[in-house]
């Protein structure tokens, strides 16, 4: 960022508010009246199923250890989350096609259906929360949110040494 790109005081205040906004986003989004209220287990299942699905989309394999790294939780916590999903029929364990010594996770048909349900809920919540926004703003926010999410793919993998970026010049 160059000096000409430095945020104005108003822009700086806006950027400072982002952290608080992220903290509120998930908590308040859960309050939207959508199909089937999400409980604490559903939130954990959504995280697990999304990570397994994302790995499959990229041709990668997801293990319990990989989930623990991505979720930044203890392996025993990840193992309990996976066991819950397996006992409810959302995931299965299978031998890795890349390394037969490893066990990887795959979505079942029920897991895929539950993931679609979670995604429908999230769309309903988005539409409900932004229902009084002009359509152009709703679509622009959705576009920017997807752009932001795509940019997270460039973040260092969990457990790597890269630290946070240097603070912007003031």
Question: Could you explain the architecture of this structure?
Answer:
This protein has 170 residues and is mainly alpha-helical. The protein has seven helices and two strands, in the order H-H-H-H-H-E-E-H-H. A hairpin with a 7-residue loop joins strand 1 and strand 2. The model has no long low-confidence stretch (mean pLDDT 87).
Strand order of the largest sheet: 1-2
Unreliably modeled segments = none
Oligomeric nature of the chains: single chain
State the helicity in percent bands.
55-70%
| Radius of gyration, CA atoms, in whole angstroms | 19 Å
Strand-residue fraction?
5-15%
- Helix count? 7
Head-to-tail CA distance between termini: 10 Å
Global geometry: globular
Structural class: mainly alpha
Biggest beta sheet summary: 2 strands, antiparallel
Mean pLDDT: 87
Query: How many strand segments?
Result: 2
Spell the H/E element sequence: HHHHHEEHH
Helices and strands, with pairings:
Layout: H1 9-16, H2 18-29, H3 40-57, H4 64-71, H5 75-87, E1 91-95, E2 103-107, H6 109-129, H7 135-151
Antiparallel strand pairs: 1-2
Helix pairs in contact: 3-5, 3-6, 4-5
Quickly list its features.
two-stranded antiparallel ribbon; globular; 170 residues; single chain
Task: Please provide a brief summary of the model.
With 170 residues, the chain is mainly alpha-helical. It is 57% helix and 6% strand. A two-stranded antiparallel sheet has the order 1-2.
């Amino acid at each position: 960022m160059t000096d000409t790109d430095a945020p104005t005081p108003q822009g700086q205040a806006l950027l400072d508010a982002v952290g608080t906004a992220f903290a509120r986003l998930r908590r308040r989004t859960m309050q939207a009246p959508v199909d089937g209220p999400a409980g604490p287990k559903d939130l954990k299942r959504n995280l697990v199923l999304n990570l397994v699905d994302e790995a499959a989309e990229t041709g990668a394999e997801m293990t319990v250890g990989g989930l623990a790294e991505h979720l930044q939780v203890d392996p025993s916590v990840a193992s309990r989350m996976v066991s819950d999903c397996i006992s409810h029929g959302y995931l299965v364990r299978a031998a890795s096609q890349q390394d037969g010594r490893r066990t990887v996770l795959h979505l079942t048909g029920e897991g895929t259906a539950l993931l679609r349900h979670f995604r429908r809920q999230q769309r309903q919540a988005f539409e409900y929360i932004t229902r009084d926004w002009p359509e152009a703003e709703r679509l622009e926010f959705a576009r920017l949110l997807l752009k932001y999410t795509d940019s997270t793919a460039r973040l260092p993998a969990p457990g790597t040494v890269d630290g946070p970026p240097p603070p912007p010049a003031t």
